[in-house]
Amino acid sequence: MMAPLVIAPRFGGPPDSGNGGYVCGLIADRLDRQAEITLRAPPPLATPMTVERAAGGSVRVRHGRTLIAEGTCLPGGLDVEPPGPVPLSEARTAGARSRLRTHPDEHPFPSCFVCGPHRQPGDGLRILVGPVAGRDLSADVWYPDQSLARQDGDLRPEFVWAALDCSGAIGAIGDAAFLDDLRRIDAQLLDAQKKLDVAVRASGTTLTSIFGVGPVVAATVIGAVRDVSRFPDRDHFAAYNGTAPIEVSSGPRKIYRLSRRGNRRLNHVIHMAAVTQIRYRHSDGRAYYERKLAEGKTPKEALRALKRRVSDAIYGRLQADTRRTAASPR
User: Fold this and answer.
1) Using 50, 70 and 90 to split pLDDT, how confident is the model at 73?
2) Tens digit of each residue's pLDDT (9 = 90 or more) over 3-17
3) Number of other residues whose CB lies within 10 A of the CB of residue 170
4) CA-based torsion, 160, 165, 170, 171: positive or negative
C-alpha cells in the first residue's frame, strides 16, 4: 500500500471534487514515468484515498469501496506530433476572445482551479483558452505562480497536467460546446440533488437539524450506518467512522494522532460538516473550534475534536430518530 492521496480544497474542479487534470498528475507521479490515467469517479476533496499498487506496475486509487482512478505506465511513450508554437501576442488575443472570459457568468463551475474565472490570480490558474485566428487551435497566456514550483524552480508536473485538462477539452470541442457539456453535467447534478432532497425529507430524519449537515451528508450517513443499534454507544460509532483518535503516547506525555481506520466515506462527510461549521462564525461549532485553539490545541487537533463532536451529534440524532420511529403507530 502506498501513501494515501489527499486533494486539497484549493485544487477543486466541479463542486466537492478535485480537478481531473491535477488529480491525474498526482497519480502519474506515483508511476515515475509516462502514464495514462483514467478517472472512474469524482475524486473527493480533503479526504484520504488509498493508492494500491496493481499488477504490471499500475495503480488504483480508491475512496472506501469506490474506485476513483486507475493508472498505468506507457513504456512506448506517446506517438504525438505537437502543433507549432503560437506567438505570445496571438495567444493573448485568443485568450481575450474566450467565451469563458467574456461571459464568466455562464460558467457552471466558476471556481474550477484551472479554468474558473472567479479564482483570484495566484490562487487559480485562470487558463481560459480561445480560438487562434487562422488556425485550428486554441490558446491563452499563462504565467505560473511561484507557489506551483518545485524547490529547483521548475513547475511541478501535476500543474502541467492541470493546465492541459480544461484547455485541452475546450480546444478539442470548442468553448461553446464545452459550456454546453458543463451545463448538461450541472443539470444532472441539480436533478440528482432534487431527488436526494425529496428522499431525505421522506425519511423523516432529523440529521439535517445539525449545522452543516445537508441532504447529501444526511443521505451518506443513513446509507453508511443503516441500523444505528449496531453501535452500543457513541464511542463505538466514532471508532467506526474514524473520528476517535488513536493514542500513540510515549512516557508521561499523551499524544493522539488521526485515525485512518473506519468508514472513510462517512469520515469524509463528517469532515465536510465540521469544516462548514468552522466557516460560519455564528455557529456553535466555530465557537467550539476557537475554544480548542485557546486551550493550546493546533488547528488540526481542534478540527479533530470538532469532528468527534459532530460524530456524537449525528449519533444522538440517529438514536432519537430510531426511538421516534419505534414509538410511532404502525
Assistant:
1) confident
2) 899 999 999 998 889
3) 26
4) positive
Question: Can you give the residue ranges of every domain in the chain?
Answer: 2-73, 88-181, 204-325
**Three-state secondary-structure class, residue 208:** helix
* Cβ within 8 Å of residue 239, ≥6 positions away: 259, 261, 262
- Tell me how far apart the terminal alpha carbons of the chain are, to the nearest angstrom: 49
Phi/psi at 10 (5° precision): -60, -30
What CA–CA distance (Å, rounded) separates 159 from 229? 47
pLDDT band at 76 (very low <50, low <70, confident <90, very high): low
SS3 205: coil
The matching CATH number, chosen from 3.60.15.10, 3.40.50.880, 3.10.129.10, 3.40.640.10, for 2-73 is 3.10.129.10
Evaluate if residue 186 carries a pLDDT over 80: no
Q: Which residues have C-beta within 8 Å of that of residue 147, sequence separation ≥ 6? A: 122
∠ CA 145-21-176 to the nearest 5 degrees? Answer: 95
> Is residue 325's pLDDT more than 90?
no
Taking all residues of the chain, what is their mean pLDDT, rounded to a whole number?
Answer: 86
